[in-house]
Structures are given as structure tokens and as C-alpha cells.
Design a protein that fits this description.
Layout lengths: L1 E5 L2 E4 L4 E8 L6 E8 L6 E7 L5 E3 L7 E6 L4 E6 L8 E9 L7 E2 L3 E6 L1
Parallel strand pairs: 2-11
Antiparallel strand pairs: 1-3, 3-8, 4-5, 4-9, 5-6, 7-8, 9-10, 9-11
């Protein structure tokens, strides 16, 4: 599975931004796709995920109500719509994937930088 993320950038607090991830190399019906992020000096943390089959979504508490994860079957793309961005949302956002029976995310994209200024 190859993951190619895009869409990061520099925005102001309160703005919106969408990051996307094109997935190739595998049929995704048995996969869970998602996003992690890593802020400067901090460990990577889970942000959101979606089951490719069935659309069940999962969110970290700190993004609930602000971020929305979705998928586009036709384009094999996972999107993360981020609204009401805060400076603490700054970081590198990584697209990730795992088979639904696996405990950890074994597939990682290269990351895209999101910077939120105050």
C-alpha cells in the first residue's frame, strides 16, 4: 500500500484546511485508514480514522466536532477536513493505514505540514 498525502499549508487560527491522501496498491475494503500528527518536540498522536467498508469513524477527543474524516471510493482517497484550527493543531500530518485485524498502523505516508498561526 502506497500513501501520498497533500494539502497542508499555513493558515490562521480559526481557518479551515483539508488534507488528502491518495491510496494505491491494494484493494481497501478490509482496511482502516486514518491520520496521525506530530507536533515539534512531541510524539506522534492519533487524530482520526475510518473503516473503508462501512464508514465507521474514530476521532481523538481533541478534534471531535472540528475535524471530519471521509473517503472517496472512486478516487481511493482519504480526506481530513479541519475546521476551527488552533495553533496547537500545528504539526506534520501523516496518512496511515492498517488491515482491520491488525493492532498497529503498518502503512505510513510521507506527511504533510500544517501550520496554524495565532
Amino acid at each position: 500500500v502506497q500513501l501520498q498525502a497533500s494539502g497542508g499549508g499555513l493558515v490562521q487560527a480559526g481557518d479551515s484546511l483539508r488534507v488528502s491522501c491518495v491510496v494505491s496498491g491494494r484493494t481497501l475494503s478490509n482496511y482502516i485508514m486514518g491520520w496521525f500528527r506530530q507536533a515539534p518536540g512531541k510524539e506522534r498522536e492519533f487524530v482520526a480514522a475510518i473503516r473503508w467498508k462501512g464508514d465507521t469513524t474514530y476521532y481523538a477527543d481533541f478534534v471531535k466536532g472540528r475535524f471530519t474524516i471521509s473517503r472517496d471510493n472512486a478516487k481511493n482517497t482519504v480526506n481530513l477536513q479541519m475546521n476551527s484550527l488552533k495553533p496547537e493543531d500545528t504539526g506534520v500530518y501523516y496518512c496511515v493505514g492498517r488491515r482491520s485485524g491488525d493492532e498497529t498502523y503498518g502503512y505510513w505516508g510521507q506527511g504533510t505540514q500544517v501550520t496554524v498561526s495565532s
